[in-house]
Specification:
By secondary structure, the chain is an alpha/beta fold. The protein has one domain (about 5-199): Rossmann fold (3-Layer(aba) Sandwich), CATH 3.40.50. Helices cover about 25% and strands about 20% of the residues. This is NADP oxidoreductase coenzyme. It comes from Dyella solisilvae. Pfam families: F420_oxidored. GO terms for molecular function: oxidoreductase activity.
């Protein structure tokens, strides 16, 4: 199973640290050339490999950690996304509600990636918290997940657990998923909630 992270800002780097901590290989890509990402990737660890966007989209599981509207450029990298699992880590804070056509931000992104097994996740924690060790006081830090494709849930839950987090499935994007999405300049109630699940 190949994994990639598209977007290598603070959130993308935090995700890369989660992979490196568990010695799981992950490719990272952004608008910049792989060579430009190399110093920060090497500082995180040898399991983090900078690649081009063209190579990153060939992973089986792809974390989308780009500024919201940049998802459109990523979506054009493949004619179809069948066989891919896409984990949407974006936040649309500050995006006017009318620009989203009345949809939840993740629903907008899901439409841009036809055929993908689409899951919203990992977006509710600040980068510094997301990048920290998820083992806390005998428990594990919670990652909220949601999506309209229930078949996508088990493999993403398994990956969350493999990375050392605990998963909580919130249901469909317009139901539980709305609890972890920004709307205009308002944050949903589960954003920034750093919860720990006792083992």
């Amino acid at each position: 199973m190949r994994h990639s992270i598209i977007g290598f800002g603070e959130v993308g780097q935090a995700l890369a640290r989660a992979f490196a901590r568990k010695n799981i290989e992950v490719a990272v890509a952004s608008r910049r050339a792989p060579d430009a990402l190399a110093p920060k990737a090497q500082a995180i660890g040898p399991m983090v490999t900078p690649v081009s966007l063209r190579d990153a989209v060939h992973a089986d599981t792809i974390f989308l950690a780009v500024p919201f509207w940049e998802h459109r450029a990523v979506a054009k990298a493949m004619p179809t996304w069948h066989g891919k699992t896409l984990i949407d880590v974006t936040n649309a804070f500050g995006i006017p509600v009318e620009d989203l056509g009345g949809l939840a931000s993740s629903s907008v992104i899901a439409r841009a990636f036809p055929g993908a097994a689409f899951v919203k996740g990992f977006n509710h924690l600040p980068a510094a918290v997301l990048g920290a060790d998820p083992s806390v006081n005998g428990g594990r830090r919670v990652v909220f997940l949601s999506g309209d494709d229930e078949g996508a849930a088990p493999p993403v839950k398994a990956l969350v657990e493999q990375l050392g987090f605990a998963s909580i499935w919130l249901g469909k994007l317009n139901e539980g998923g709305s609890l972890v999405q920004a709307r205009g300049r308002s944050w949903a109630p589960l954003i920034f909630q750093d919860l720990i699940k006792s083992d």
